[in-house]
Amino acid sequence: MLPLYYQEVRGASALSAGLRLLPQGIGMLLTRSWAGKTADRNGSRNIVLISLAAVAIGTLPFAFAGTDTNYAFLSIALLIRGAGLGGQFVSIMMSVYIGLQKEQVPHASIATRIFQTIGGAFGPAILATVAQHQMAAHAGTDLHAIAHAYNVSFWWSVGFAVAAVIPALFLPMRKKSGIEVAPQKGDSRAGGQQ
Q1: Where are the strands (E) in 1-141, listed by range?
Q2: How far apart are CA 127 and CA 138, in angstroms?
Q3: What's the average pLDDT block by block, 10 residues per block, for the chain (194 residues)?
Q4: Domains of the chain in sequence order
Q5: Is 121 helix (H, G, I), strand (E, B) or coil?
Q6: Which of the 8 DSSP states describes residue 97?
Q7: Which pLDDT does position 183 carry in this prediction?
């Protein structure tokens, strides 16, 4: 929805809209290693909860953005949103593999890719449907009505981030004392490697 907002509401070209999203990618890069190290030490629950808050805060300005909202303000919002997305993705991916045996890792990897693909299609489809419904309700080509339609879809996105807090509460929250490897069948070691 972000590139569409820049293209349809702000009149940007596809290239310009893509370039406007760079702060989000930079934000993801900034939190990637921090989130991985922190989740490895303390578990992923708190990192994901903080990241979801950052995603909601970074999306919120777009729920109010109009036809002339300051680009620098939106870039800062995208940086915050990207930081949240980076922390969230890395922490969740790390927690998927906790306690798995070596032969289970490929299955977990495939399952996470399938869920990412489904979520990556399902979420934007819902948001696009919301925006389309809003545009149909205001049946004109007024730019402010189009901006309002995107505002509503971004409110839904904020709502999804808030709703994601519930499954995030089930993520592990524990301190690890080193690299943990699940014991293999017939393996006499009870712990992992130090």
Answers
A1: none
A2: 17
A3: 93 94 95 84 89 96 94 97 92 82 87 88 90 79 87 95 93 58 50 45
A4: 2-168 (1.20.1250.20)
A5: helix
A6: T
A7: 52
Which stretch of DSSP H or E encloses residue 152? helix 143-163
Number of Cβ atoms within 10 Å of the Cβ of 6? 23
Q: What is the DSSP letter of 102?
A: G
User: Residue 69's closest CA among 147, 135, 130, 155?
Assistant: 147
User: What gap in Å lies between CA 11 and CA 67, rounded to an integer?
Assistant: 9
How far, CA to CA in Å, does 61 sit from each of 55, 130, 133, 141, 157? 11, 18, 21, 23, 12
What is the C-alpha to C-alpha distance for residues 86 and 15, in angstroms, rounded to an integer?
Answer: 23
Least Cα distance to 173 among 47, 42, 52 occurs for 42
